From TrEMBL:
It comes from Actinocrispum wychmicini. InterPro entries: AAA+_ATPase, ABC_transporter-like_ATP-bd, ABC_transporter-like_CS, ABC_transpr_LolD-like, MacB-like_ATP-bd, P-loop_NTPase. Residues 9-246 form the ABC transporter domain. The keyword Iron does not apply. This is Putative ABC transport system ATP-binding protein. Keywords: ATP-binding, Nucleotide-binding, Transport. The lineage of its organism: Bacteria, Bacillati, Actinomycetota, Actinomycetes, Pseudonocardiales. The keyword Transport applies. GO terms for cellular component: membrane protein complex; plasma membrane. GO terms for molecular function: ATP binding; ATP hydrolysis activity; transmembrane transporter activity. Pfam families: ABC_tran (PF00005). PANTHER family: ABC TRANSPORTER RELATED (PTHR24220:SF685), IMPORT ATP-BINDING PROTEIN (PTHR24220). It comes from the Bacteria.
């Protein structure tokens, strides 16, 4: 991240332990990091290294065992459950591997759902821009089952953007897509960062997907162990292959 850039999300000394006693698993160990506003960050690491846990704690989907998480100036630990629910609805967007669309709703209704749930009116000009950017203007009356996987993910991205969130979190957003369709979705995420200064944080296993990011951060065994700025897919793959050789420190 540019050291001058404002942090959209900041985690400080975040640890997360699942379970208790002998069954306890420490998924994150004292992770500190700032995700710069208007940047695209990919989070990588071996299976079980804590990527999804970091994403979930950063997005207010889960609470850390210790440490703090800030979304802009808001300390998530200070929020009650209902406030956290509202924050997730109003201030962050999510894109998951499984598109999680409502099958009974049209594309337009799916995109507008977060606003409907919040009782907010759509900003028509923003909606038009989002729909145009994701390339779904001709599909607004269709239902998800009538769309390809890539189109469905683009609906999910439009839904994530419609509230103008401070951060869009993606958990393997291209995991269910073929290479070409995945590339379309990645180009779209890249373009929303470039044109709207949107902040995107994406967990991925795929070095090619990670290479669309401004920065790739690497987790190993619950710790942040390094980063690469604007890397090629080969550089990411190479770093992944050598993750075990690294010392700590980002
Ligand atoms: N709800 C849970 N209860 C108990 N252990 C959990 C839970 N969620 C995650 N873990 C454990 O915490 C560790 C980190 O999991 P996490 O899902 O964050 O890793 P990941 O890097 O996203 O893995 P993957 O790439 O396989 O999705 C793993 O050892 C996992 O088994």
């Amino acid at each position: 991240m540019d050291s001058q850039a404002r942090a959209a999300v900041r985690v400080a000394g975040v640890s997360k332990t699942y379970g208790k006693g002998g069954a306890a698993v420490q998924a994150l160990r004292e992770v500190s990091y700032s995700f710069g506003a208007g940047t695209f960050t990919a989070v990588m690491g071996p299976s079980g290294s804590g990527k999804s846990t970091l994403l979930h704690c950063s997005a207010g989907l889960d609470r850390p065992s210790s440490g703090s998480v800030w979304l802009g100036d808001t300390d998530l630990a200070a929020l009650k459950e209902n406030q956290l629910t509202r924050l997730r609805r109003d201030r962050v967007g999510f894109v998951f591997q499984a598109f999680n669309l409502m099958g009974s709703l049209t594309v337009r209704e799916n995109i507008l759902l977060p606003l409907r749930l919040a009782g907010r009116r759509p900003d028509r000009e923003w909606l038009r821009q989002v729909v145009e950017q994701v390339g779904l203007a001709q599909r607004l009356r269709h239902r998800p089952a009538e769309l390809s996987g890539g189109q469905q993910q683009r609906v999910a991205i439009a839904r994530a953007l419609v509230t103008r969130p401070e951060v869009v979190f993606g958990d393997e957003p291209t995991g269910a897509l073929d290479t070409r369709t995945g590339a379309d979705v990645l180009r779209l995420l890249r373009s929303v960062v470039d044109t709207h200064r949107q902040t995107v944080v994406m967990v991925t296993h795929d070095p090619v997907a990670a290479s669309y990011a401004d920065r790739v951060v690497f987790l190993a065994d619950g710790r942040l162990v390094g980063h690469l700025d604007r890397p090629s897919a080969d550089q990411v793959a190479n770093r992944m292959a050598h993750l075990d050789d690294w010392g700590a420190g980002c």
